[in-house]
Design a protein that fits this description.
Number of helices: 5
Mean pLDDT: 81
Strand content: 15-25%
Shape: globular
Structural class: alpha/beta
Low-confidence stretches: none
Number of strands: 5
Distance between the termini: 36 Å
Order of helices and strands: EHEHEHEEHH
């Protein structure tokens, strides 16, 4: 299976992507990412990789500067019916009209609500169309939240 990972993090949080990739590989995924961070548009390469993916995971933190690209890639994944999840840090400036779909908001200082929400969505009794991305990527997101919420990553 393939997972496309899209992220907008500051340099201090880059270790998160290594952890996310490792967790997804443990679940049998090969990982693809678009490394063209100079482009704020949805590139043909990203479109191709998202089309080939079985799961899309996006991660945006509040001190990042490439949010628009991640949201465009997430919206493309949704329009392509690729199972998808977007993880957003609380108190970010994002147009709420763009946030329709599978996403969860987390707070670095108090991650419990986000962890509880992900665990709830991972339960088999929620086996709707929205269940698939949480079943595939939920554990990886829990690890990401744990790392982002650790004392060394707090601002």
């Amino acid at each position: 299976m393939r997972a496309f990972v899209s992220y907008s993090l500051n340099d201090r949080d880059e270790l998160v992507m290594a952890l996310l990739s490792a967790k997804l590989r443990e679940k049998g995924f090969s990982i693809s990412m678009n490394y063209d961070f100079s482009s704020f548009v949805l590139t043909p390469m990203s479109q191709r990789m998202i089309n080939e993916a079985n799961l899309f995971i996006g991660v945006i933190t509040k001190n990042s500067n490439d949010r628009e690209r991640v949201i465009k890639e997430w919206n493309y994944a949704k329009s392509n019916n690729t199972p998808n999840i977007l993880l957003l840090e609380e108190n970010m400036q994002v147009d709420n009209r763009l946030l329709q779909g599978n996403y969860v908001v987390f707070n670095r200082k108090n991650p419990k609500n986000a962890v509880d929400e992900i665990n709830r969505r991972m339960l088999p009794k929620n086996a709707t169309e929205e269940f698939l991305p949480w079943a595939l990527g939920g554990a990886a997101l829990l690890a990401v939240i744990g790392l982002l919420s650790s004392p060394s990553s707090r601002r």
